Structures are given as structure tokens and as C-alpha cells.
Amino acid sequence: MIDGSGMTQPDPSDPSTWTATSNSYPDEWQTTSFLSGATNSKTAWTVFDLGSPTADLEKLYLWNVREVADRGTNAYNLYHAVSPSVPLPPPPPTNTLGGDYDFSSGGWSLLNTSGVLNLPQRGGTPDPPNAVIDLGGVSAQYIGVEILSNHGSTFGNGRVGLAEVAVTQGAGGPEPVIIPVPNGEFAMYKPGTGYAVTATFDGGNSYSRGVGDGLTVIGSPGTVSYSDGTSGRVIDVPGWVGPVGGTNTNDLWSAGFSPDGTTCLNVFGTWSGQNGTLIESAAPLGVPANRAGMTLELSAMVNGTAGPLTFDLLVDGAVLTPDSLVDPSYAGGSEWEEILRTYTDIPAGDVTILVGTAKPGPGDPPLFGTRMRIDNISLTAVTDRIPEPATLSLLGLGALLALRRRRR
């Protein structure tokens, strides 16, 4: 499966011309039996890895099991992801049943939001694609198939699978893929709710010091309202750790201080007594391991006079040198400005973000200005190439996925 075996391909770059010609099981993938007690009542699952985040995915071509038609996939769901929250397990050995995988575990988006999909049984020989699914131009590295049923076979405690799969990409140029930055907008939450209940300052000059969990609200009136209808004086600001690098604490200010009227990060220059205010993202970001041809763009909205502002990408704790940058004017006033860093040749390792004002070391320029507000931190990736045929992770088999650029 996914290697063209058992297929006739008049135009290798256009799966719509391909036909299945083999009824032999070595040319396809079948599970040894159904999963038992799996999430969402699935009988099997498979994930296709495109190798790197890929923009403008156009169509998914599916050929059903051909050896025995009633073993073919019937009801199924399609998911896509750039960076799943739960890592995918390695494929189990051939002829071995692997375990379950929960597509609701985070980072996955359901493609068929209007209802479960159904894949017709195989046709004759030669057989064109049994289904062509419009992917709608999504950006993804992974495509997941959650198989819910077959076409009736009970052989071997239930078998199900697919014969061949192909994915095509639109003919347009590279498009940005968003890499999630956890809480890049510095939202506040009610403690003990798993970041499910949001908090809003009750006007006035209320604020909190620091990031993380269990922060006391101070100022006037020094209270927050939670989205569950209760109120209190404690908030969580997840996604970040700090202060780091020997710097001072930071303030998270109330509505009206950010571009969207909510909360933002507030860091200091001279008000910090030359101690600075510096924080780091709490966990590695989901930048794919395959970074060949990739450009990363780190951006945020800022407003204020404090600087020099630190806004860096780190790989395994080491600061990357940007290829280009756009710095703020430090003019203050009511206008918010974009700060931007662009990176290429990104090395392997864990990627994090460092932001704020750093404590000056010997020979460093002193901090200046009063404060700087920072909000809406984002990270995007652009890959300037079409990935080569990529490794496919699936239940019971490793193989190759054909990724083709559609010709207009």
C-alpha cells in the first residue's frame, strides 16, 4: 500500500488517472483484527505523515480493500494536524495488532464536520479511486483515518483496511502554517479548572505579577470575574515561566491595554531598576523535526517605550540569530506596532520563545523607557518545497505516501 504496488499509473503525478489492478493482499493493508474498547468505537486507525507541515492540501484519493470486498473500510472519520498534542506511537511489527490512538487528545481537527464518511466497496478491475475527498486547502503534516466499521466481514475477529492512498497539493506557492504558541495572548483562567474557565479583571487598575499558576490579583479593585459566574482574587496565566535570567517579575494588566481589549504582558525598562522583565514559553513548541527548506516567522504586537526589547527563538536554550527583523519604534502613544523575526536554517532541537527586557550584563547597553506592552505572539512556518514521498505511520505497517502537486 502507498507504494504503487498493484496499481496502474498512466500519469504518476495525477492520482485521478490511477487504477487498482491487483486483488492480492500483499498489495494492500489489512488489520489482523478489530481493536477492542477503542476510543470513539473505532475498529482501526492509520495516520499519514507528510514529513513536514504542508500547505494547500487539495484531495485525498482512496482505494478500498480488494482481496475480499467486505473487509473494506466502510464508515470513517478524517482528521488533520500540524503538531498533535500526543505523539504518535511507532508502527507495530508486521502481523501484530497495535494499540489505540485518541484523535480527541489535542492538536487534531475533524475534516468531515457534517457527519461520518462512508467509503464504497471495491469496484471491478481496473478500478479507479473509490473515493476522492476534498481537503479544502488545509495545512497539515498528518492526516488521520479513524475507521469505524468494515463492510461486514467477521473473519479473524474482524478485518479492515485500505488498498492505496494518495494526497495532492494545490499548484499555488508555499503558504504559512501556524505553529501554536500556547497562550500567546496571555489569557487568564480560574485556578483548578484545567484552563477551561476564563477570568476578566473587574475594571479599575487591577493586575497580577508574574506568569504561571496561582497568581494573586492586586491593585484596585483587585478582583476578577470568572466565566462560570463566580469571582475571586487568584488567576492562572499558563504557557509561560519566569522571570528568567535574573530579571524582575512582570505585570499582566487589565482590559484596554492590549490590541483586542483584553490582557497583555507588561514589561519594564528603567522602572525595573535595570533588572529587566524576561519570560520563556513553558514547553517546546510544535516545530516539526524536518526543517529542510523551512522559514519561521516570529511576530507580536507591542506598544510602549521600554527597551531594548528581547524577542528571540531558542533551540535547546541557545538564541537563534534572525535572518531579518523588524523592531518597534519605542515611540509609545496609542498605536500598536508589529515586531517580527525571520529565521531559516533552523537546527534540530526544542524550540521555545524568550520575550521581555533582559537584565544588562557587563558592556551591554542599559535599559531605557518605562514599560512595553506585548500581546498576540505567533509563530508561522513556510516550507519552500513539496516534500518528497514521506514516511507513513499506520497501524501494523510502515510504507510510503505519494504526495503529488496537481498541475493546472
Mean pLDDT: 86
- Strand fraction band? 35-45%
Radius of gyration: 26 Å
Assembly category: single chain
Number of separate domains: 2
* CATH architecture classification name of the largest domain: Sandwich
Major pleated sheet = 10 strands, antiparallel
CATH class of the largest domain: Mainly Beta
- Per DSSP, the total helix count is 0
CATH topology of the largest domain: Jelly Rolls
Characterize the overall form.
elongated
Structural class: mainly beta
Distance between the termini: 27 Å
N-to-C series of helices and strands: EEEEEEEEEEEEEEEEEEEEEEEEEEEEE
Care to describe what's here?
The chain is mainly β and 408 residues long. The protein has two domains: 7-173 and 386-405, Jelly Rolls, CATH 2.60.120; 179-383, Sandwich (Jelly Rolls), CATH 2.60.120. 0% of the residues lie in helices and 41% in strands. The protein has strands spanning 7-8, 19-20, 29-30, 44-64, 75-81, 109-110, 117-118, 131-147, 161-169, 177-179, 199-201, 207-209, 212-218, 224-226, 231-232, 234-237, 240-241, 251-253, 264-268, 277-281, 294-304, 310-315, 318-319, 324-326, 337-343, 351-357, 371-383, 390-394, 397-405. The strands form five sheets. Strands 10, 12, 13, 16, 18, 19, 21, 24, 25 and 27 form a ten-stranded antiparallel sheet that branches. Strands 3, 4, 5, 6, 7, 8, 9, 28 and 29 form a nine-stranded mixed sheet that branches. Strands 17-20-26-22-23 form a five-stranded antiparallel sheet, with no helix packed on it.
